[in-house]
């Protein structure tokens, strides 16, 4: 949930059932919910309107419901939504609840995708369509960083040109200033060692494996590994850093128009136009270490204007390396479970479409 710890209000099974029924009805209609409505919804439990009304009073007293007007029904508070989301998160996202048609529609949008940038650019559109909210994606590196081929050329004593080709076809070249000289033959041996042992591996995984092998090998490979350590330390296996943000679905937020009126909405949209702010928002809430979807109700800690909004996001990984993040931003009254399923499915699709095929030298 949020970065700041949130208090959980203890509730009985009956209170939780009624609270969840209120939340789901409010999500569907946007209107304050009356006890008679919940009595009809939960008629199989034999609860009367009077009993439900009493429970709604109890939920109001502990801060989970509020009454906009004296004669109106109740609406859930932000705390109620947080507790509702915790239950959904405890079950985990269920992509299997997405219909075959929904999955097919999502898959169709990615026809011909060949790079991480292309994937994430399309994803902002896919998430906006699927959630009726704002689709936001963050690319934290300029290209897919799975190794296709590497070549070293000795330019002069202590100076080497490293040419790295990634699985996406991107070519990176760097001139490395070494602390010691490496001969042309030694450079060829080092390149062959990388290409034969680590084809299709992410660069981060290559570096981790080299560290382990340097610690374990005590053979003819010692010299190769020493050369590789020098080359990598000087930047041969570094990826190009960068950050791109893709956004779509601003019209969805305008049509939702969460409380506060048009003036507040203009301030929010103005903030969202600053892509650096959006990048900071995703970085603040989507943890690269998390294994599943994260839901944050109330974004005021990162952007004060967005206290009535929700972020549902997940990291996008390729061969185990985090390449960015995908997220939906929408009003508190949104279809949480559907959005969680879609975000989870799309995040996993990233690795499925762009990741290297399993092979004898692939760590995956």
In the CATH hierarchy, the architecture of the largest domain is 2-Layer Sandwich
Report the average pLDDT across residues.
79
Tally of distinct domains: 3
Instruction: Indicate the overall shape.
Output: elongated
- Helices, by number, come to 13
Reading off the top of the CATH hierarchy, the class of the largest domain is best stated as: Alpha Beta
Summarize the SSE layout with pairings.
Elements: H1 13-29, H2 35-41, H3 49-61, E1 65-66, E2 75-76, H4 78-91, H5 100-108, H6 116-131, E3 134-141, E4 147-156, E5 159-166, E6 171-177, H7 184-198, H8 203-216, H9 221-233, E7 241-248, H10 250-256, H11 261-273, H12 275-285, E8 294-297, E9 309-318, E10 321-331, H13 336-354
Helix pairs in contact: 1-3, 2-3, 6-13, 7-9, 8-9
Short précis:
By secondary structure, the chain is an alpha+beta fold.
Model description:
The protein has helices spanning 13-29, 35-41, 49-61, 78-91, 100-108, 116-131, 184-198, 203-216, 221-233, 250-256, 261-273, 275-285, 336-354; strands at 65-66, 75-76, 134-141, 147-156, 159-166, 171-177, 241-248, 294-297, 309-318, 321-331. The chain folds into three domains: 13-76, Arc Repressor Mutant, subunit A (Orthogonal Bundle), CATH 1.10.10; 92-142 and 241-354, 2-Layer Sandwich (Beta-Lactamase), CATH 3.30.450.40; 147-233, Enolase-like, domain 1 (2-Layer Sandwich). The protein is α+β, with helices and mostly antiparallel strands. The strands form three sheets. A five-stranded antiparallel sheet has the order 7-3-10-9-8, sandwiched between helices. A three-stranded antiparallel sheet has the order 4-5-6, with helices on one face. Helix 1 (13-29) crosses helix 3. A hairpin with a 2-residue loop joins strand 4 and strand 5. The radius of gyration is 26 Å and the shape is elongated. It is built from 13 helices and ten strands.
């Amino acid at each position: 949930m949020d970065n700041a710890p949130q208090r959980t209000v203890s509730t009985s099974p009956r209170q939780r059932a009624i609270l969840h029924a209120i939340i789901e009805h409010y999500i569907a209609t946007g209107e304050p919910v009356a006890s008679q409505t919940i009595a009809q919804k939960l008629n199989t439990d034999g609860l009367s309107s009077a009993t439900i009304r009493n429970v709604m009073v109890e939920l109001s007293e502990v801060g989970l419901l509020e009454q906009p007007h004296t004669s109106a029904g109740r609406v859930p508070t932000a705390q109620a939504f947080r507790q509702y989301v915790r239950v959904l998160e405890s079950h985990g996202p269920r992509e299997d609840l997405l219909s075959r048609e929904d999955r097919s529609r999502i898959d169709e949008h990615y026809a011909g995708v060949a790079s991480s940038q292309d994937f994430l650019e399309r994803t902002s559109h896919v998430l906006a369509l699927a959630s009726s909210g704002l689709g936001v994606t963050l690319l934290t590196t300029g290209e897919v960083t799975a190794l296709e081929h590497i070549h070293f050329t000795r330019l002069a004593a202590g100076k080497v040109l490293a040419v790295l080709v990634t699985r996406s076809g991107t070519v990176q070249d760097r001139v490395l200033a070494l602390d010691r000289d490496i001969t042309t033959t030694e450079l060829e041996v080092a390149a062959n060692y990388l290409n034969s042992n680590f084809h299709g591996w992410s660069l981060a995984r290559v570096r981790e494996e080299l560290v382990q092998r340097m610690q374990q090998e005590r053979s003819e490979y010692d010299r190769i590994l020493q050369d590789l350590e020098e080359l990598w330390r000087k930047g041969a296996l570094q990826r190009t850093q960068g950050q791109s943000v893709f956004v779509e679905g601003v019209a969805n937020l305008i049509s939702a128009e969460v409380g506060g009126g048009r003036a507040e909405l203009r301030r929010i949209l103005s903030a969202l136009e600053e892509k650096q702010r959006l990048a900071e928002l995703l970085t603040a809430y989507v943890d690269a270490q998390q294994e599943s979807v994260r839901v944050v109700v109330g974004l005021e800690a990162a952007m004060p204007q967005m206290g009535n909004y929700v972020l549902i996001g997940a990291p996008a990984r390729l061969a185990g390396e985090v390449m960015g993040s995908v997220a939906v931003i929408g009003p508190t009254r949104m279809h949480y479970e559907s959005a969680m399923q879609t975000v989870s499915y799309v995040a996993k699709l990233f690795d499925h479409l762009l990741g290297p095929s399993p092979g004898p030298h692939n760590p995956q």
